[in-house]
Write a structure and sequence with these properties.
seven-stranded mixed sheet
């Protein structure tokens, strides 16, 4: 079993910054992609915010490009999201996601989710 635990959410004024962190633990052989998703109030679907491969290659939603930076530490199984110049429309519950390969190896990386952390940006 694999657990993802997020931290770092909170309340911030528009223009401010927050840093989200997520640590994965448990039966982990290796992790493929790691990423952050969010669920905006009033919407059911989670949307991709940013992702990072184990090679370091990154991908960002257009709405956060130039403001958010994703990073990871493969040795510590952590992924971080530095969020700058926050806007009220960034208000959401943010979820950490990781594609994990566990023992015994099956050739498949399974997706795991954190419990979510609330980010609220006031205007």
């Amino acid at each position: 079993q694999v657990q993802l635990v997020e931290s770092g959410g909170g309340l911030v004024q528009a223009g401010g910054s927050l840093r989200l962190s997520c640590v994965a633990s448990g039966n982990i052989f290796s992790i493929d992609d790691m990423g952050w998703y969010r669920r905006v109030p009033g919407k059911q679907r989670r949307e991709l915010v940013a992702s990072i491969a184990n090679t370091g290659s990154t991908n960002y939603a257009d709405s956060v490009k130039g403001r958010f930076t994703i990073s990871r530490d493969n040795d510590k199984n952590t992924v971080n999201l530095q969020m700058n110049s926050l806007k009220p429309e960034d208000t959401a519950v943010y979820y950490c996601n990781a594609a994990v390969r566990s023992r015994p190896l099956t050739g498949i990386a399974l997706p795991y989710w954190g419990q979510g952390t609330q980010v609220t940006v006031s205007s």
